[in-house]
Sequence to fold (109 residues):
Amino acid sequence: MERAVWIILNKHFSLTLDGEMADGKVIDKKFSPGEDIWTNELPRLGFSDEKVQNDYNEFISDILTLFSEPQVDEVLINAKIGEESEYLNCENPLLIRKIEEYSVDEIIE
Fold:
């Protein structure tokens, strides 16, 4: 099983995506806002500062827009490690950076 890790960020926030790459798709997505917290869904964090909360909600909305693009899997899978891609079709531009590829089978052995 081949997996990869990407960082998705804008000028305010970052999110780590870990996903399995199979048949030209990124499946079994896991998201982390930081620390050692992982979830199968985009994390819905709450902030006491209303402006920060609005910025975070826009960030999540922008990521949902990114994932609705037909070529998103191809862009993620074909990215070179350390390479940045910019996604501009959203409220605040997103940077996507692949940081690692790994094989679960090799780790288990």
In short: The chain has a mean pLDDT of 93. The chain has one domain: 2-108. The two ends are 12 Å apart (CA to CA). The chain is about 30% helix and 40% strand.
